[in-house]
Amino acid sequence: MAYDLANISMTALMRPALDAGTALTRLDERIARSPVGAGFLERQNFADACASLWIDGELVHLEDLVLHDATKDVRTPTHELTIARDVLRTRRRIAGQLPDWALSADGIRALRQTSEITSTSPGEAGAPSIIRPATLFDAEGEGYDGDDAGNLPGVDYAAIDAVLARSAAAIEHATRPGRATASGPQKDPMIYDLDWDEDARLDEWRGVLRQAEQLPAVLQAIVALDAWNELSVLQHAPWLGRLLCASILRQAGITAGAHLAAINLGLKTIPVDRRRHRDRETRLLAITQGFLAAAEIGMKEHDRLTLAKAMMDRKLEGRRTSSKLPELVELVMAKPLVSAGMVAKTLEVTPQAARRIVLELGLREMSGRGRFRAWGVV
């Protein structure tokens, strides 16, 4: 299905797109000069990954994603949580590269290889590791890693690792981009549409990008995102298109200073009937408003973190030089949520001491549970 730019009227989009670009640039400049900029970016990555799953019709809790990323899972990871982890790591990978890398031929090829569940190559930086869900608890019911407890009696870990290795190999083959070939095993037709030519759809999408090269950067990103959705480029990774569109803004210099725009957070606030409207101009305007909403949400979150950091710094006045509170403040500002296990590992204290320090700092309990608790800034 062709995506024609000739019939798009840009008149109604010019002013909203200008406002969105200005707001995103202002946010980028503020983050670049902010003492809480690093913590803001890390929080934004987690929040944007959860919002991406929300847009695709799935629910992932922020605390579950934080704990899963820190390998502190309190339950078996779900399919949706694994996808959110892939979105999170892809965001970090794009942000860690040069602005023009993601949209290059090599960049798109690499991102396609890691755009589906557990498809990161072994040995690559950031590759997921096998997590054995130990169920060890301390006296107060708080979970912690059981790696130091030794092998449990009667458990054949070699057999378990062999099963996991075979499963990983099967998943890697199933998620390999491109159509099945006659020389290789056919993909399961219950999961994949065998007539879905991702390479052809991707070439068509890149053709849309070439047609939109003369447009302002924000309009390029808006058109590119709508074209990605309409062409349905990748069967099982619609979220990758939104990250590539954020890369367009970064490559053009709109957000090149400090961050990769969290457009999923803004699009989440737009009603789905507008984002998926049959009229293309309505969809384009909805995407534009989503970009503006992303900048506004970022500004409010940055102000909240700045105020929280100032309040916590007051509690550090008069403390001993050996106090662990300054390290805890840095950890809390870097992560949306922290658990007792995460605090204990970072500060090199016991889980009981970690909970005592958390209470001393006055953090807010965010999980609402008696065990596997998590805290964050108010």
Write a short abstract of this structure.
The protein has helices at residues 11-32, 37-55, 62-69, 79-95, 105-113, 157-174, 198-211, 217-231, 239-251, 263-268, 272-275, 280-314, 325-334, 340-347, 351-361; strands at residues 136-137, 143-144, 338-339, 364-365, 374-376. The protein has 378 residues and is mostly helical.
Secondary structure: elements and pairs:
Blueprint: H1 11-32, H2 37-55, H3 62-69, H4 79-95, H5 105-113, E1 136-137, E2 143-144, H6 157-174, H7 198-211, H8 217-231, H9 239-251, H10 263-268, H11 272-275, H12 280-314, H13 325-334, E3 338-339, H14 340-347, H15 351-361, E4 364-365, E5 374-376
Antiparallel strand pairs: 1-2, 3-5, 4-5
Structural features, described:
- The protein has 378 residues and is mainly α.
- It contains 15 helices and 5 strands.
- The protein has helices at 11-32, 37-55, 62-69, 79-95, 105-113, 157-174, 198-211, 217-231, 239-251, 263-268, 272-275, 280-314, 325-334, 340-347, 351-361; strands at residues 136-137, 143-144, 338-339, 364-365, 374-376.
- The strands form 2 sheets. A 3-stranded antiparallel sheet has the order 3-5-4.
- Strand 4 and strand 5 form a beta hairpin.
- The protein is globular.
- Residues 117-150 and 179-185 have low confidence and may be disordered.
